[in-house]
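anyone else get weird line breaks when pasting these?? whatever heres mine. first is seq + tokens for prot A
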Amino acid sequence: MKTTIAFLTILFAAQSYAATPAEMAIQQATANVAKQPDHAPYYNSLAMAYARRARETSDVAYYAKAEETLTKSFAITPDNFEGLKIKTWLQLGRHEFANALETATKLNKISPDDLSVYGYLVDANVELGNYDAAVTAAQWMLDLRPGNTAGLVRAGYLRELHGNLTGALEVMQMADDSTGLSQTEDRAWLFTQMAHLELLAGDVAKAENYATTALSVFPDYHYALAQLAQVRIAQTRYADAVTLLAKRYAAAPHAENLYALAEAQALAGQKEEAAVSFQKFEGQSLAETNLTDNSNHELIFYYVDHAGNADRALEVARREVARRHDVFTLDAYAWALAASGDYKAADAQIQKALAVGVRDPKVLFHAGSIAMHLAEMPTALRARN
């Protein structure tokens, strides 16, 4: 599962149940703005509600609404602290990780005991590959308020990255235990993450249970559809995976989601459909390749695994690794280097990823393949490579 940090940046505040928690928050904030249109905090609340709705639906149009609303907040009270926190959240959501780190660092200096700012420091540092700094920030969250849900969620993800799946599941369960029943999207997200962790640990039955529970809590939740599809692939129920991923792409038509659908179609033997999806994916991905919020990882794997174009893969990988060094970017870069025949350089990159402790099956497969090719190379050629 592509684990972008936008998932981890939600403020876990209790909401009254309506159609969805975010919709209820939008309604309440809109009513407050109408009553007092010169009050910046009401615009901040509305902007955050739109941001929550973006996560619920994966509809990026809500990010634009949030930014527009935040502009109104700053017009009333320039650079107000809560507004800048939401600006950081939006930067993370758009994968502007370096900018988010800069903003969060400034906010942390202004208010060094703000819990959510430490959360943003975790998120940005994780995505940039600054894992020691991320761990330090996460520890501050738990020291400032032991057992807080936002801190537990981030600690769980860091444990996963460092290979401690049992510990990750433990804190994710603690986070769920402290999340109110009315917070349906937050709970569905947590169940989805637990399904992901169980699948990594090899317990397909538990993964299926968590994924289906997520969908029962929040029907047609796009993250849960994707995770249940991964369960179906593990069960070799490829046609079912295609159905789930097609539904997900219809709801969230992002390039990375189309790539997952194309791969499932190929596994299901739907060769013509897969070819069409891959072609459409390439065009859609290339249109966003220079954006911060892109599908460059998937584009690299497409060029290596499906298109056989190592040069293009390496071009995209070098551009992506220039801005971030997280384990998944290092993995994609290593795979592109291997495809180009530079196994020594590929091994150097994949070893950096493995040193963190990550147990993602794709990363481990790539590492094994690269090591095998290195071992098969003649000693003299290996030294020159």
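and prot B, same format (seq, then tokens)
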Amino acid sequence: MIIRTPHPDPVGPADPGTTASLAARLEAAAQGRLGRSLAIRHVNTGSCNGCELELRALSNVLYDLERFGLRFVASPRHADVLMVTGPVTRNMREGLERTWRATPDPKWVVAVGDCAAGCGVFAGSPACIGAVASVVPVDLVIRGCPPTPTQLLQGLLALLSAR
């Protein structure tokens, strides 16, 4: 039983200029670090789908990551980054571990949202094993309930810019 209710962070309108600049810097960082575009694989390990909505917003007409070469891929074998949402449930532990093993090196894991970082509102649930970091190594945590698309872009840029 969930005792606490989620309190989504208020979000203002996205500035198209800032978004385009951020996405262009992200593509340049991917080219510099990998020599090619960044491929992202999303893994839902038991979330409420709030973070998924924000991840999918990255593909809409406002953010349109495809124009910068960033893309979501269907197979972990083609991915550079695993963006994991939700706390890890008992049913999804093996799926997350297999996905992580199938992703070629170099690979990064990003825990997206408060639930992936520390179970959020699902803390204490018998269905949850714990945060993503308790199952696979996490390189970056992007907090928020849910994080905005701009925060997601900033997180990816920080990940690629880190040495």
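btw re prot B: The longest helix spans residues 16-34. The chain has a mean pLDDT of 87.
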